[in-house]
Design a protein that fits this description.
154 residues; 6 helices; mainly alpha
Length: 154
Amino acid sequence: MKGRSLKSLLDWGLAQFSGHNLKAQALRFVSAGAINTLATIALYQLLLFIMPPLQAYTLSWATGFVAMLVLYPKYVFPSDRLTVRMVFTIAAIYGFSLILGNLVLYCLETLGLTARLGVFLSVLVSSVFNFYALRLVLAPPSSSTSSGQHHDPD
């Protein structure tokens, strides 16, 4: 930190969020995902007072899905080429993620873990899946990267 100005540190921090490399995309995904996840988990916890866990999970998931459709293509994997086909592909990814999350939650409940805690592992598993699946759709590797002409170490 010695010898670095506040401006240079801020510029460095902002640079970590820009670009299409894995590290920048992961930071943006975690940031947007944290906001979305905290909101959907809070909603899930509230819904548990009035409905069973799988229904609460599905409704809170649907709310998070709408938020994701707004946040991710614009901020996480910036793209000016979002098409209707991509939106349907994203919906399919999140549909599979819903099934995966419900499966994890169901398995944890049958093992005796409470639904209030099981949701955290369910979210973790589905979030890892979502990051890599969305990255393939919204930020596919460029042809120069796949041909070996350019390699981004991050």
